[in-house]
Write a structure and sequence with these properties.
Layout: E1 6-10, H1 29-37, H2 51-60, H3 64-67, H4 83-89, E2 93-98, H5 123-127, E3 138-141, H6 153-161, H7 183-189, H8 206-220, E4 228-233
Parallel strand pairs: 1-4, 2-3, 2-4
Length: about 250
């Protein structure tokens, strides 16, 4: 009997009522179709109300108190067994496309993080990143939400490939950067997060990127003899405390 392919699609911190099937004012047609054709649970509980511990629990099968990443800013140890590693041993190809956030934004000697600056914006590093990471043989990552300064990684590479060579101007500057280092951003927004909308073209939003790259991975697996496990990890609708972003349905 052939082994089944596994496609895991997640959104980030989405309340179970934030679906068109629950509230007709919301437009989530693709998620609604998954609800109609599959199962929808309104009494399911995540292991933590914080994203990093919950995400780490998904791939480890452990509570945050056991896998170690008990809150944001605490790294998931890289020696914790993951479902991806078990699936590789079972003959699967494994991939993660989208948001990871297994590691903190502050890298220290005691707890080094590749999801921290300046590594996030070191695009040559990400172009050459080909190691198995937390059980994923193939990764394409984006750490930021909306116009946060945490932008970079494979998403920024994709932006450049799609002609947005000045992508940094559409995102907040790194802490300590002056207006002189991002003149277009300063002129357009004045670095003010209130009373404005994000000018990044919708087709270049990271939701579109995650979907496009996930489909590309699935297409590449069509001729493979190995079954696959793909986690498409979408960033939205992660609350941003008043920050405005482009709302796209997964």
């Amino acid at each position: 009997m052939p082994k089944p392919n596994i496609l895991l699609i997640t959104t980030d911190q989405q309340h179970f009522e934030a679906l068109g099937v629950h509230d007709p004012k919301l437009k989530t047609p693709n998620l609604d179709r998954l609800c109609r054709e599959g199962s929808r649970f309104d009494r399911a509980y995540c292991p933590s109300p914080v994203c990093t511990p919950s995400r780490a629990s998904i791939i480890t099968g452990q509570y945050p108190s056991h896998h170690g990443a008990w809150t944001i800013g605490v790294k998931l140890p890289e020696d914790v067994p993951t479902v991806g590693e078990a699936l590789i041993e079972a003959g699967y190809s494994t991939a993660l496309i989208g948001k990871a956030h297994f590691q903190p934004l502050a890298s220290t000697a005691e707890s080094p993080s590749i999801e921290a600056q300046p590594t996030l914006r070191d695009l040559d590093f990400w172009r050459g990143f080909n190691q198995t990471w937390y059980g994923f043989e193939h990764v394409e990552l984006a750490r930021n939400h909306a116009d946060e300064s945490h932008v970079g990684q494979h998403y920024a590479i994709w932006l450049e490939e799609h002609g947005l060579t000045d992508w940094k101007e559409y995102f907040q500057p790194l802490p300590g950067d002056s207006a002189a280092k991002a003149p277009k951003m300063a002129a357009r927004y004045g670095y003010c997060r209130d009373e404005r909308s994000w000018q990044l073209p919708q087709e270049l939003h990271y939701t579109h990127w995650t979907g496009e790259r996930s489909l590309a991975y699935l297409d590449a697996q069509a001729d493979s003899d190995r079954p696959f496990f793909l986690w498409s990890s979408f960033h939205d609708p992660h609350p941003l405390y008043g920050q405005r972003t482009v709302g796209l349905d997964v």
